[in-house]
Amino acid sequence: MLYRDPEGGRSSEPRVSRRFSPFETGRGAPIITQQQDERHGRHKPYIEHRFLGVRPFTDYLTEADVGFTLFEDPCAEAIFAEKSELLNRERDSIVIGACTGEGIGVYFVQFGIRITESFLSYMVFIFDHHPQPRELAIAADDLEPLVLSRLEGVDIGDILKRGSH
């Protein structure tokens, strides 16, 4: 396990932060909600998910002075194999970790999907427990709808026209 403290150092001991919860909006209102699968009326294994853009969740944690632990979890490799039509081990990333701040008690899975030669686009899924392999697969299945929801209202034809000038 790797512990990363907010000052960017690495150690074998976690650093506890009490200043800020990354799961609150700027107004202090909590954004953690239980996700429900509308198709089957079942709850998703994660409690929140967000499309982050080109900045990883771990950067936000560091900026917010929230300590975290990254795990070398073999489940990540299993997801690359199981979801090879969606995720490519050579270009994409899966990071599994936990926030180590007192009272936070959440785990996260950060997916990075290569969108250009230089950039990954990041999505994060928040769990109230260490995610199991099947739960990671469910989160991976929810990547495409999450990306598509961010593209609603985007006119690809207009973007292509502007790009050709």
Task: Describe the model.
- The chain has 165 residues and is an alpha+beta fold.
- Helices cover 25% and strands 25% of the residues.
- It has five helices and nine strands, in the order βββββαβαβββααα.
- The protein has helices at 57-63, 74-82, 133-141, 143-151, 156-163, and strands at 2-4, 10-11, 36-37, 42-43, 48-53, 68-71, 93-99, 107-114, 120-127.
- The strands form two sheets. A seven-stranded antiparallel sheet has the order 2-1-6-7-8-9-5, sandwiched between helices.
- α2 packs across α3 (133-141).
- The longest helix is centred in the middle third of the chain and has 9 residues, at 74-82.
What are its keywords?
about 160 residues, alpha+beta, 7-stranded antiparallel beta sheet, two-stranded antiparallel sheet, 5 helices, 9 strands, about 25% strand, globular
Can you describe this structure in just a few lines?
With 165 residues, this protein is an alpha+beta fold. It is 25% helix and 25% strand. β1 (2-4) and β2 form a beta hairpin.
